Amino acid sequence: MNTGLNKISGRVWKFGDNVDTDVIIPGKYLRTTDMSVFAAHVMEGIDPQFSQKVKKGDIIVAGENFGCGSSREQAPLALKHAGVACVVARSFARIFFRNAINVGLPIIEAKIECEEGDIIEIDLEKGLVSNKNNNYQGMKLPGFLLEILTDGGLVEHRKKKALQ
């Protein structure tokens, strides 16, 4: 259901506060660089069946401090390669926030009310999250971070800049 990078629409998966990187992608899978392994085990520490249920374009909605714990960039990579289109959380651990931007996983800080399975829409440029009942103003990403996301992450962004 994804409608482009700056505007994203998808089905909600809900998680609580303090979702750490060890449950997003357990450490025993970090010895590989195979993204399909990361995708197959994403969120395994919370919901062992999540990787079989999540569909491309789905959105995670979480509480406070999403992505806390270790600084592993494999956590946002696992979410991205599992098809998660965006993560909406009340707050993110700072290193996860930056790692998500660096690997091209859209994220937005917003406090929203929704149920698992709801369809929500996100306008990254405006920092707006909407569901069937309400609009929620979240944190607008600065233009330079939005540009990095639009380019597909920091590596692709730097390649693009080098060609200009």
Structural notes for this entry:
This protein is an alpha/beta fold and 164 residues long. The chain has helices at residues 21-24, 35-40, 50-53, 74-81, 94-103, 143-150, 154-163, and strands spanning 7-14, 59-62, 86-89, 107-109, 119-123, 128-130, 135-137. The chain has a seven-stranded mixed sheet with strand order 4-3-2-1-5-6-7, with helices on one face. The chain is globular. The chain starts with 6 loop residues before the first strand and ends with a helix.
Mean pLDDT: 93
Shape: globular
Tell me the number of structural domains: 1
The CATH class is identified as Alpha Beta
Q: Report the order of strands and helices.
A: EHHHEHEHEEEEHH
Instruction: Tell me which CATH architecture applies here.
Output: Alpha-Beta Barrel
What's the tally of helices? Answer: 7
Through-space gap between termini: 33 Å
In terms of structural class, how would the helical and strand content be classed?
Answer: alpha/beta
Percentage beta strand = 15-25%
Low-confidence stretches: none
Q: Sheet with the most strands?
A: 7 strands, mixed
Helix content: 25-40%
CATH topology: Aconitase, domain 4
How many whole angstroms does the radius of gyration measure?
15 Å
Strand order, main sheet: write it out.
4-3-2-1-5-6-7
The CATH H-level superfamily is Aconitase, domain 4
